[in-house]
Amino acid sequence: MLDRIPTAAPDSLQIADRLRIGGLTRLTTIDYPGELAAVVFCQGCAWRCRYCQNGDLLEAAASEQLIAWADLHAFLRQRVGLLDAVVFSGGEPTLQTALGAAMIELRVLGYKIGLHTNGAYPERLHQLLPLIDWIGLDIKALPEEYPALTGGPHSGEQAWASLALLVASGVKLEVRTTLMPDWTPDYLRTLSHELAAHGVQHYALQVCATQRALDPKLPSYAVTPRELVTAVDASCFERLEIRGL
């Protein structure tokens, strides 16, 4: 990882202008730990996760609903001193090559940068690391289970490669997993032990909102989420959070 934050290039605003922005949360206290933040939702994702809640952000094609970068940049200039951070979410932000330029422009304004990512592009993630202060990484399953969940044939290898990269980098990292309705306590126990063995210190478990899932055939929970999470040994992690119970 580079040890110096790049400064804005003369054409970085023009490059950032290519960023496809599908939505904006103007103020949040939960998307970047300990900071007041805005969340920028980037349009487009290569995966089709069965439990996805943001189906309107999946298609990469331009839409009349997209937010112009110039408008977003102007809004965030006005919020300097009121907000601490900007989080890029999605969709999958690292799908877009304009993401780095957008991050640089907001660092110049003084914002901390957060990223929510599925880890689909570890090489791009490596290039972006000097620009990022905090990352929330989705680890959806054990590597071999990914294709059935995401529709991507190599998605498991990509996501776990990103995990190894981020753990080694020392960036502030939260790994989160959405509890699939057909999982057993034994499966979740195995997954959580693997993550602990890979160096994960901050782990968050999230309940799947099956009624809003991309896959309408996603079943209801066979074992209640409350029962599932008891399979995770909290002592394996520095911090364990359970969300949505």
Automatic annotation (TrEMBL):
Gene Ontology molecular-function annotations: 4 iron, 4 sulfur cluster binding; lyase activity; metal ion binding
Keywords: 4Fe-4S, Iron, Iron-sulfur, Lyase, Metal-binding, Pyruvate, S-adenosyl-L-methionine
Cofactor(s) annotated in UniProt: [4Fe-4S] cluster
PROSITE patterns linked to this entry: RADICAL_SAM
Keyword Disulfide bond: no
Record domain Radical SAM core: where: 31-241
Protein name (Swiss-Prot/TrEMBL): Pyruvate formate lyase activating enzyme
Pfam families the UniProt entry points to: Radical_SAM
InterPro entries, A to Z: Aldolase_TIM, NrdG2, Organic_radical-activating, rSAM, rSAM_sf
Keyword Iron: yes
Positions of transmembrane segments: none
